[in-house]
Amino acid sequence: MPIISTSKLTKRYGQLAAVSNLTLSIEEGEIFGLLGPNGAGKTTTLSMLATLRSPTSGSAKVNGYDISKQRNEVRQSIGMVFQGTSTDDLLTARENLEIHAMLYSVPSDIRKKRIDELLALVELTDRANDLVKHFSGGMKQRLQIVRGLLHHPRVLFLDEPTLGLDPQTRAHVWKYIERVAKEEKITVILTTHYMEEAESLCNRIAIIDHGKIAVLDTPTNLKKKVGSDMVKFVSNNADAKKIKSLKFVRKIEQKGDSYLIKLDEVSKNLASLLKSAGNVSSVEVRPVNLSDVFIHYTGHEMRDEEEGGGWQGWER
Ligand SMILES: Nc1ncnc2c1ncn2[C@@H]1O[C@H](COP(=O)(O)OP(=O)(O)OP(=O)(O)O)[C@@H](O)[C@H]1O
Ligand SMILES: [Mg+2]
């Protein structure tokens, strides 16, 4: 049985459908990503599942409880880290966790053990008694993530868990999210607009745009569906006809001596392609990525840039 299921979940603000007829189910133990640009409806979706906002129509269940009729039970089942929530800078890491444990009525006899366990999980034991104001962005984020876990929730909601962090720190936080999911045996639903984040962390991804799911699958399957890797090379005597006839080649574009080839499985087929490419003076390879998937299913870039695909798509 799925741990989260939604049926035609909808949230309207006046004329705007921030989330529109969202139907999905998430299995226990998944790290599930909602990937979409600013304003896509990611936070609104999480907020409804976390019972912070009421749906306009449709329904959803979290851990078997109805988000409209059993709010308290839902809240006991979940941990959440939302945009704008923060830890108290003037307290130590441990004090922050202690206050939260009291808020969630974690029994006092197990409180200390649980806090120690969670601090260790995100490698903050040595910093437990330091003021949070001296923490780096990544450390604060790790502290927030485990703060949401004090009461042993079954599901953890993370809204943009690495927003504003540098790429290196972001990858570091991913490691902790994976660890937390595994060791606490919880289901994680996160939102992001970072493609790499969704790709590296999530078992499945729903790409959402304008409040609707454009497509939902594993990162690998998503890329397979769109499926064209690209190779760009320069050659003054390529055999374009031969290249076109290769069974793994999907498309060939030519500008003077430059060729752009869309093909399946570049790692397997590059050598045979280059056999027909003549005197190649330069070659570049660009495997398909989630950005291509996004464009394919939504018709536009993740960020409001120019139309992708072809030569322009290469530049991303
Ligand atoms: N309280 C509100 N009143 C009116 N409109 C709202 C409200 N909250 C959200 N919206 C609108 O709903 C849409 C979805 O917003 P939401 O915050 O869910 O997007 P998001 O995908 O989380 O974006 P971001 O990446 O910027 O966090 C946006 O168009 C937003 O302006
Ligand atoms: Mg948001």
Task: Describe, in plain words, how this protein is organized in 3D.
With 316 residues, this protein is α/β, with parallel strands linked by helices. The chain folds into 2 domains: 4-222, Rossmann fold, CATH 3.40.50.300; 225-315, Alpha-Beta Plaits (2-Layer Sandwich), CATH 3.30.70. It has 12 helices and 14 strands. Strands 6-7-8-3-9-10 form a 6-stranded mixed sheet, sandwiched between helices. The protein has a 4-stranded antiparallel sheet with strand order 2-1-4-5, covered by helices on one side. A hairpin with a 2-residue loop joins β1 (4-13) and β2. The longest helix is centred in the middle third of the chain and has 17 residues, at 167-183. The chain is elongated. Residues 304-309 have low confidence and may be disordered. The chain binds adenosine-5'-triphosphate and magnesium ion. Magnesium ion is lined by residues 42-43, 83, 159.
Largest sheet: 6 strands, mixed
Bound molecules: adenosine-5'-triphosphate, magnesium ion
CATH superfamily of the largest domain: P-loop containing nucleotide triphosphate hydrolases
Note the run of SSEs as H and E.
Answer: EEEHEEHEHHHEHEHEEHEHEEHEHH
Distance between the termini: 40 Å
How many structural units, i.e. domains? 2
The CATH class of the largest domain is Alpha Beta
Helical content class? 25-40%
Architecture of the largest domain in CATH? Answer: 3-Layer(aba) Sandwich
